[in-house]
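ping. complex inputs:
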Amino acid sequence: MGVTVTYRNGHTALRDAEFQIPTGTITALVGVNGSGKSTLFKAIMGFVRLAKGSISILGRPAAAALKGNIVAYVPQSEDVDWSFPVLVEDVVMMGRYGHMNLLRVPKAVDREAVEAALHRVGMGDFRKRQIGELSGGQKKRVFLARALAQDGRVILLDEPFTGVDVKTEEAIITLLRSLRDEGRVMLVSTHNLGSVPEFCDRTVLLNRTVLAHGPTAEIFTQDNLERTFGGVLRHFVLNEGEGGGRRAVDVISDDERPLVLYGDGHAASRLPGHDGGRT
Ligand SMILES: Nc1ncnc2c1ncn2[C@@H]1O[C@H](COP(=O)(O)OP(=O)(O)OP(=O)(O)O)[C@@H](O)[C@H]1O
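pong. complex structure:
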């Protein structure tokens, strides 16, 4: 049985949502605003009650996995109180809390983990800055560092690319790939459709339930995306190339980073003629 979440106001944000993710993979969670992506993360983290169903993480019930500190969560920026006066290094140290005793006195191993995590995301020089004084992309990187310091086997990222520039996005993707190579599992919600085939092995399409899930190459089809987004996606057709060598490509876009579909309906992450794939 899948997972159902009903909020206190009676709104059922997820109904019978069900999917599995293999270890050592990155899975995209894709859906329109309000389709239940954040609710799904909150359900996995135990922040909202399940009306029905259950969640299992690496073979353990979610509550046991969370207690075992194996799940790291990078929330959406909107869910964080940035006015809270706390230093960058303290935010990253929070990732170590689950490894400490009740008094939460950091040991050398905790300080080393924080240092390594800050360096891995390129934020070593910002450790003494107030978190509220950072740019959007820098804040994201600090929260990624918190997840790295936690050393979670499963990492949930709620819209890590929103409001970040192309360079930071690429840096985050590179980091996620290296975490995948270490055998970790990642679930990433994103509106950047164009980058999904580039780095996500698998995709879950959501609209208040799971519409489709599986390898991105199979799931990311025009039919499935249209079913997921309905009329919300901008959809236009380009002609590629000059003279006789013209080839029609469909471009469907949920945001600034479009997804390109060739005539046979398969996805390509790069827009033809635009090396970086961004328009
Ligand atoms: N605390 C809450 N109480 C009642 N309804 C809520 C609550 N949080 C979210 N919802 C509703 O549940 C639905 C799913 O919201 P959710 O935040 O999970 O969507 P999302 O897919 O993450 O959207 P976005 O892409 O905008 O971040 C929405 O209709 C939302 O209004």
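Residues 3-220 form a domain with the Rossmann fold fold (CATH 3.40.50.300).
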